[in-house]
Amino acid sequence: MSITGRLTCAVATLLLVGFALQPRAVLAYEDEASPANPLARATTLVLLRHAEKDPAGDKRDPGLSAAGKLRAEALAKHFAAAGVTHLFATEYHRTQDTLAPLAQSSGVKTTVTSGAKTAELLLALKSLPPGSVALVAGHSNTVPQIAQHFGLALAHTETSEHGAVLPEDAFDRLYVITLPPEGSKVAPALLELRY
């Protein structure tokens, strides 16, 4: 199955699971501020590692390979109608290039944060308005750190001297984190997808 087909199936599954598990949240859009509907104003974070690097590019700051560019286009296509409100990338070309097609098609400007200062990114994510949908393009080491900050451990990682990291060849993973509104008794939720 193609990248497009796999992501389409994954997104459809996510929507069906969300409807089955939280029908009140799906059906209660008429009254989003209702205290009886704690998930109506949840914040959604989508964490991903940058797409495939150009092996012939600058060793420190390579752009994307041909496969990486195709993956970035697929990402833009599948999130075009997702209501994305925020995009975050590090100062490196590979993260910014991964989000560039989506930024262009959605009109959402990418916020650039230092890859070495994950704490600054976490502050920005925690201060997102309720109901935000944010995509974060990070690196093999920062994506697991961000998830851990929200109390979530990613599966299929490797252990390094600095903690959990994504495998070196893992460019196809999306981690969808649902953060309930502040004060809610609902715990953050994690869904791992491939694209």
Account of the 3D structure:
The chain has 195 residues and is an alpha/beta fold. It has one domain: 3-Layer(aba) Sandwich (Rossmann fold). It is 35% helix and 20% strand. The protein has helices at 3-21, 23-27, 66-79, 93-106, 118-126, 142-149; strands at 43-49, 86-89, 110-112, 133-138, 158-160, 163-165, 173-179, 189-194. The strands form two sheets. A six-stranded mixed β-sheet has the order 3-2-4-1-7-8, with helices on both faces. A two-stranded antiparallel ribbon has the order 5-6. Strand 5 (158-160) and strand 6 form a beta hairpin. Helix 3 packs parallel to helix 4 (93-106). The radius of gyration is 17 Å and the shape is globular.
From the N-terminal CA to the C-terminal CA, the straight-line distance is: 11 Å
CATH class: Alpha Beta
DSSP E strands, number: 8
Cα Rg: 17 Å
What is the average per-residue confidence, as pLDDT, rounded to a whole number?
A: 85
Q: Helices and strands, in N-to-C order? A: HHEHEHEHEHEEEE
Question: Major sheet, described briefly?
Answer: 6 strands, mixed
Assigned CATH superfamily? Phosphoglycerate mutase-like
Shape: globular
Query: Percent of residues in helical segments?
Result: 25-40%
Number of helices: 6
Give unreliable regions as ranges. 12-34
Range of strand content: 15-25%
CATH architecture: 3-Layer(aba) Sandwich
State the domain count. 1
Placed side by side, the strands forming the largest sheet appear as 3-2-4-1-7-8
Structural class: alpha/beta
CATH fold name: Rossmann fold
